[in-house]
Amino acid sequence: MTGSDDVFRARLLETFREEADEYLETITEGLIALEKSGPTPDLLERVYRTVHSLKGAARAVNFREIESICQNLETAFSLVKRGEFVPGVDDFDLFHRTMAVIKSLLQGERPDTSPAEINGALRAIPDREKTERSDFAGDQPAEQGSPPRENHAYGAPGGYNGGEQGTDRSTVRIAAHKLDRLTAGADSLLTTRLFIMQRIRELEEMMTRFSLWQWNHSQALNDLQMIRRKAFGEEKAAIPPDLVLPFQRAVEFLDYNREFVTNLQHDLVTHLRFMEIDRSALETSTSEISDLIHDAALLPASTTFAPLSAFVREFSRTSGKSVDLTIEGGEIEVDRRILDALKGPVMHLIRNSIDHGIESPEVRRAEQKSATGSVRIRVFPRSGSRVGIEVADDGAGIESRAIRRTAVENGVITPEEDASLTDSEAIWLIFRSGMTTSRIVTDLSGRGLGLAIVEDTVSRLGGEVTVSSAVGKGTAITLTVPVRMATLRGLLVRSERQVYVLPMQQVKQVLRVRPDSLTISRGRPTIRLSGETIEVIRLSDALGIPPSDPVMAEERPKPLVIIAYGAGQIACMVDEVIRVQEIVVRPLGSQLTSVRRIDGAVILGDGRLALVLDPLELIQDAMQAERSVSTSALPWEAERRILVVEDSVTSRALLRSVLEGAGYRVETASNGIDAFARLKQHEFDMVVSDVDMPRMNGFTLTEKIRAEGGQLAGIRVALVTSLDSPEDRERGKAVGADAYIVKKNFEAEDFLKIVRRLTHRREGEIQG
User: Fold this and answer.
1) Is-contact 538 544, C-beta < 8 A?
2) Residue 210 near residue 265 (C-beta atoms within 8 A)
3) CA–CA dist 756, 537 (Å, integer)
4) Parallel, antiparallel, or unpaired: how do β-strands 464-470 and 739-742 relate?
5) Helix, strand, coil percent content, the chain, rounded in steps of 5
6) Residue 107 needs a FRET pair 20 to 30 A away by CA distance; which of 32, 642, 688, 762 works?
7) H or E element at residue 612
8) pLDDT tens string 376-393
């Protein structure tokens, strides 16, 4: 195959993958709807035709594995259409596994279930043989000279080509990266507009200087007239002959100069007026173009949230629960980039609802609820070009007492702070990192991240999170975000000799204070504002910039910018607040992505570069610094002892290296019997154990630790294993493990966070 053929095939496959993704999404939605409402004719026909279209598309690009799977799936649905087969729960499980296999094949990955196994399971559906002879014959290649039985060309008559997904000929498909480039180009027009506005300001300054010249010229005009009369007019006096001509030329030039400058001023005024008109026209045009391009990036919210139905079905079954997902307002359009950013947080909220909110079927029946729980995603418009995305469940709700207890155990708040919180305020602790009410840590939940990730993502999009909950009735969390990723408005400030930009979305207030009027709390300057005590930091100090001049006590007022991000806020002292203007944030490049507190850069109208600050990191660093000042290292921090139980030499060395690198004292054992003997001889704070080991496995070791009591009572146990089935996780929970970590998802940083949290909790229990 030639190079051009390779390129053509690569493009063809890329187009096929994009089209196949749409087909898979439609089929998955149809399967969910069929399982809920039963095999209605319209729904069956839509799924059947979409499978048929996917088969034809796979055949066109010679993707035989997908074509074969679709053929067998299509045959199964033909049985359902004729009423010869009614799929049950296990059959729908098979259909969803089929979708997962096709998706893996599309992405070039190895599926969990082989295509041959899926085809065998689909062929085993009852009465398949009866229909195979009649249906499959139509899909064989036509014999030479005979007309084709079926036309698989896209859009061919008689073949379904995804018409229900939209065949409006007024629309075109555009690659996402091209749309992103268009959007970036439209945003760049703003920079050009800023340049023009800067030129207009410079012209206005020139006009001011001309006005000053006019005033000075008018002062000298009387003197000039007198010189003219004395030198050349009726009051002509005696002037040396050799000075008459030069003097006359000088006076004539001054007359010409006055006329020239007056005309130049008139031209500048006219030019400035027309330039202002052009600027206004450019602003209107660029705003319209920018709005149109940003509108082109809007997609119905259902395109992102509808596919989550399959995730809810799979995850709820893994959790031993029955949960339905409903989506309202999916037709409301939101910027594709915002939807992509929110997909993870919404999945996190759904997982929390199923894992922590929705009760088991037995508990729900006992509470006179439907055995099937409900999770609802509701998308609704809000004022100010914003949209609300509510994730609600009808589960157990949030119990403030459990939240308070966990927050104190994990060191998120102190007992004194807990005593001052109301129940409604305590609910907001779920947004703090380190919060989880799950008793066991797994790769799915209980890692202590709470909803901090959700709030962080929404805040970065310029949105906010609200939560409401009623015990026994359910929880609703609402994400309010902009409809589109518009250009930002930023506050330009100067600190030392550098100009910075603070996003206006996080600027709460700007005021001027005298530095000597600040109060000192725990060794740090603070200000009291609206009943709240806010820490004050110098922006230059927060950024680690040394002062250009010696620091001296100042009495004159200085600008103070209050920035708020989620639950935290600080006051930044700067040297000057310049102005508020629209900004287009430029990335710093891959070399500078790890630079903290800096989110990007903008080009100002005068061509200077200004750095865009990250309010979240400024606040986090200030709070972290406060924590380091207020709490010293505890003497028992480095004395914590951990027993690592692992039969694999490599895994044992890895775990020991990670833990010792974090300052823990580590001993090792190669099996459960050796480990249990060491536990009875020495005192340990925690056990990190494999499960699958000779002589005594990790489950049995955990059971014996929990049954022993005495010296081993309260010791924390984390199981780190390659066994990742739901049954294994449940058994780990049943035997009393505090954490169940799957090796394929092992991350050293996350592992250490879990260890710190569990050992801190144990220390708190000992001291209590």
Assistant:
1) no
2) yes
3) 30
4) unpaired
5) 55, 20, 30
6) 32
7) strand 609-613
8) 999 999 876 789 999 999
